[in-house]
């Protein structure tokens, strides 16, 4: 039984890594396509990326519900097909409208594949390892996002736009084959709530959104802050955050299962906020990099802990929508943080990161409230 579970989970990880590597490959390529080939502007580059994010945000709760009704494997397969079709639209000469259509299709496919895989992962994971397994699943997505742009640049330099589109189609096709070979024993067809924002998702979602402000500020403004202060190699700050994020998730992924979600939320938010304060006042690269390491190490366990709270609090009929909604809070926070950070950066980078630290501490408050709500007896059960 354990061997079968591990084999299925390994297949899900491989499929997710292939798919999101393909998604990440186009990140450095689309700006070149829009400006060099389609005579578009920088604004249209931004619209292209925003379209897929907004669509994925809106589709995720529906995708979770659909996976509960019809089966995780079926929804993942359909998502992979849509992402393959996206590569075909990239290659067709339909100009900017065709590119926008491709990004809409990508948002739908990405949401369906990720959310169905999330539910499948939760159903597979042993009770005492849920947070760790959910954390590894999310790490596969972020690893794909990290690997994809590098691969995209290499393929484009060695070949052409066509070579990139062919690779972008091949990777989710491999994912389709992997998923097709898996056996889905997750129960389906049960009654599924129509709620798109279940109550069980609100407080964990707010907590995740607050914690995500730190990540967004480091990714968007960490290197810029160093440049403004006359410090070279500011990209090291972003890299340090990523290294800590991956390392702590791999090494300490079982901690939420062992000590409970609440202590992890409190510790993670406190540590991440400390890292933001260090970056806010850093006058040299090493102090900023240390702050980024601390912040990344704190942030990485926040999602697994909050996902665990959501899973425990949500009725079975709402679990798909609840996980989808919590993940959507992350997308909303990234968008808001970009707008707020951009406005604050014009005034002071120190203020930018101090505001981020304050937002992260809001994660502590909302996460604590979520844990108390999850532990409270259900009045309907009385």
Q: What fraction of the residues are assigned to beta strands by DSSP? A: under 5%
**Terminal CA distance:** 36 Å
Please tell me the overall pLDDT: 85
Largest sheet: none
Q: How many strand units? A: 0
Output the structural class: mainly alpha
Shape field: globular
Count of alpha and pi helical runs: 15
Low-confidence stretches: none
**Rg, Cα atoms, Å:** 20 Å
Q: Can you write the helix and strand succession as a string?
A: HHHHHHHHHHHHHHH
Could you estimate the helical fraction of the residues in percent? over 70%
Core attributes:
single chain, 382 residues, mainly alpha, 15 helices
Structure, described:
The protein is globular, with a radius of gyration of 20 Å. It is built from 15 helices and no strands. 82% of the residues lie in helices and 0% in strands. The chain starts with a helix and ends in a 7-residue tail after the last helix. The mean pLDDT is 85. The chain has helices spanning 2-25, 29-37, 42-70, 72-91, 95-124, 130-158, 161-180, 199-228, 235-251, 255-259, 261-281, 285-299, 302-313, 319-345, 349-375. Helix 2 packs across helix 3, helix 3 (42-70) runs antiparallel to helix 4 and helix 5 (95-124) runs antiparallel to helix 6 (130-158). It is mainly α.
């Amino acid at each position: 039984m354990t061997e079968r579970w591990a084999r299925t989970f390994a297949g899900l990880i491989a499929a997710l890594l292939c798919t999101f590597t393909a998604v990440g490959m186009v990140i450095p390529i689309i700006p070149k396509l829009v400006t060099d080939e389609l005579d578009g502007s920088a604004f249209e580059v931004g619209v292209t990326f925003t379209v897929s994010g907004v669509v994925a945000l809106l589709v995720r709760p529906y995708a979770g519900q659909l996976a509960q009704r019809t089966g995780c494997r079926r929804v993942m397969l359909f998502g992979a097909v849509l992402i393959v079709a996206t590569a075909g639209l990239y290659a067709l000469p339909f100009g900017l409208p065709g590119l926008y259509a491709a990004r809409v299709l990508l948002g739908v496919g990405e949401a369906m594949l990720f959310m169905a895989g999330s539910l499948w992962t939760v159903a597979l994971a042993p009770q005492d390892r849920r947070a760790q397994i959910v954390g590894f699943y999310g790490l596969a997505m972020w690893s794909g996002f990290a690997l994809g742009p590098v691969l995209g640049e290499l393929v484009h330099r060695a070949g052409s736009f066509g070579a990139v589109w062919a690779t972008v189609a091949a990777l989710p096709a491999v994912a389709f084959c992997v998923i097709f070979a898996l056996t889905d024993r997750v129960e389906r067809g049960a009654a599924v709530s129509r709620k798109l924002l279940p109550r069980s998702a609100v407080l964990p979602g707010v907590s995740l959104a607050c914690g995500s402000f730190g990540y967004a500020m480091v990714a968007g403004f960490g290197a810029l802050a160093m440049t403004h202060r006359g410090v070279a190699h500011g990209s090291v700050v972003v890299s340090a955050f990523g290294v800590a994020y991956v390392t702590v998730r791999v090494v300490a992924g079982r901690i939420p299962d062992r000590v409970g979600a609440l202590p992890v939320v409190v510790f993670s938010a406190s540590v991440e906020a400390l890292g933001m304060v260090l970056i806010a006042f850093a006058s040299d690269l090493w102090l900023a990099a240390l702050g980024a390491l601390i912040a990344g190490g704190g942030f990485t366990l926040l999602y697994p802990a909050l996902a665990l709270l959501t899973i425990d609090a949500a009725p079975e009929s709402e679990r798909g929508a609840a996980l989808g909604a919590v993940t959507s809070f992350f997308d909303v926070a990234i968008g808001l943080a970009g707008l707020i950070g951009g406005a604050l950066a014009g005034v002071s980078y120190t203020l930018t990161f101090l505001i981020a630290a304050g937002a992260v501490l809001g994660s502590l408050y909302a996460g604590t409230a979520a844990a108390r709500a999850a532990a409270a007896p259900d009045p309907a059960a009385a």
